[in-house]
User: Fold these one by one.
Assistant:
Number 1:
Amino acid sequence: MKTISVAHSPDADDIFMYYAIKFGWVTPNDAKFENIADDIETLNQATLKGDYDICAISFALYPFVKDDYALLKTAVSFGEGYGPKLIKRKGTKLKRNFKVALSGEFTTNALLFKIAYPDARITYMNFLDIEQAVINGDVDAGVLIHESILTYDDSLEVEKEMWDIWVELSGGDLPLPLGGMCIRRSIPLHAAIDYEDTLIKAVNVANKNRKVLAPMLLDKGLIRVDADTLDNYLDLYANDNSVQLSDIQYKALDKLFELGYKNGFYTELVKSQDFLIPSEYKELRQK
């Protein structure tokens, strides 16, 4: 049986969406999924090198890997009135060229931040270290992602919501694209369709069985936060809108790619639906 590497981040929504497979509730045909958990920028960099068969990525990375990876339609995270937060120490005022910690060069929040704050001095670090770096004064500000947007220290305050930056840049009627998954193009199409179907089922099963799955993950120590924070976080990033990309989410992705292109971060304009797995092939093949 073929082993397929599936890499995801260790944050609560990715763990939640994947573990329906890990626990054996959903299984692919004729393949075994082997999961790897790592921080999102490490996964972005790994995708650039082609390390994994299926990998979670920041959506902002995708135009750089589109020739080698197809975009999956499931396990997606979007913000709807919320998202990463630019935080600073309470009572401080940021200068035009303030020093900021971001969670990675290819993250979506980094793309939006660079457009909004072109004069800021950027340093990259693991997302788990950003909050303490701001508290210690190593940087003037930092962009928090994942669960830390709910749990940051009382000595810190929000300078700007990345959601507000997105609204200003995009026009205000689209959800904020944050992360999704991609699959290696060298995988045979019929197998790629099956793997995507498996992941769609896994996310759907996890979402529908949240009251069972969430306590299991907490009991096994797989989640970094407590039960209440997990519940709040899953409300944000692992919900009905995570199961399969919708029309408005495609529009949001295209707007993100357009912003990156117009601001010189991408060399060509990418349309998200041009880079999906052609799942209709499965139906045609069966006729």
Note: DSSP finds twelve helices and eleven strands in the chain.
Number 2:
Amino acid sequence: MTTLTTPTAARLAGITRTLSEWQTADWKGFLHPGDLGWNSMAGAEKSAADLRCWTADGTVVAIGMFDGEDLFRMAMDPAALDDDELARQIEADLTSGRVLPAGTVTVEARGALALRKRLRARGWNEGEPWTPLRLDLRTPVPAHPRDAALRVEEIGLDQADDWISVHWSAFKGTPPSSDDRRRLVHRWTTMATGPFAHLAHHLIGYDNTDQPVAVTTVWTAGDGRPGLIEPMGVHGAHHGNGYGTAITLAGARVLQQHSASAAVVVAENSTAGALATYLAAGFTASEPVTDLIGSVTQRHP
């Protein structure tokens, strides 16, 4: 029998261990412990409340995480990806409203063959493609022409403001307001000291004038498992200088130092710049994957 639960914060360590064990060499681009870490900016209690776990015979076999109100991101035990009976139960939970809110929702279930088949048969549509990318860390990480021009440091809490400023510029394009800066530094600090902090390494790249120009965070999943790059960004005033590739490779080296088997990331196909950055860093692209978009008509009581 399969049961569905929302875990407490006390269960986060165990869930992280389970999810780490699912990060295999043939990584499908599904939920990684680093995704839980990046989602933990509101604290441990909210992180736990965003999760759903399916358990069979006392063992967690599937994990889902709300990333916002209408995006549900999943991972499954690799041995259960084509288990139709488990997929039937998860499909029922997702489409009945026991998990998802009423309205149009998106489910990220990369590699979950049986579940994806069931949702498509129900009429769910495929969304925009994303490409999983992987850099093998069993050999030396390649050098890049901009490596010498970028001084990279692994930072602590005292440099959160610099990290936030670069990240905001990379994704928003404008300087953060004072209120935004205070709020974001608080959230970043919560994440960097939270239940997933031991998995994370936060990097800033400085140019030859000591200006912070690029950032990334990389997340380990244990020795011999893929480590995630999430996020990576370059300050809006410094695009086109190769800093994205250089900071990506610096992150890969940190993962290699912590015994990761590979550095992995998923890039949206519509963001050509991100794809180009990872390919320039020597990552190998897998077949694109899509999320599934459907409608839930009512909320289960």
Note: The longest helix spans residues 178-192.
Number 3:
Amino acid sequence: MTANVQPTLDGTAPPQSADYETWLAVVWPHFIAAAASGRTFTCYQVADINKLPAPPNPQAHWGRLMTLLRDEGYIRTAGWACSDRPTTHHSGVRTWKGTTAARREAAA
């Protein structure tokens, strides 16, 4: 069974990775770089700016990624904002900020 994938604004389907581990290896460095920047960000902002592929299960894997980054000590919660994602109608989303560990990882 394939998950429903939200089309992009031009009507095409976003690229999607075949398995979670492959997808994680692709997106992880972009989120570490965002965390190391010192700026507050949302998951969607990082994905959109870097044109990252959708995970195999978008409903679960984006949140799992952010939980892994937090649990590994790379990010911490910074608050809430209105989402920039076109399909959310400005719903509230968590914002994140990088930690010292993220700055060290990016410098390595």
Note: The chain has a mean pLDDT of 84.
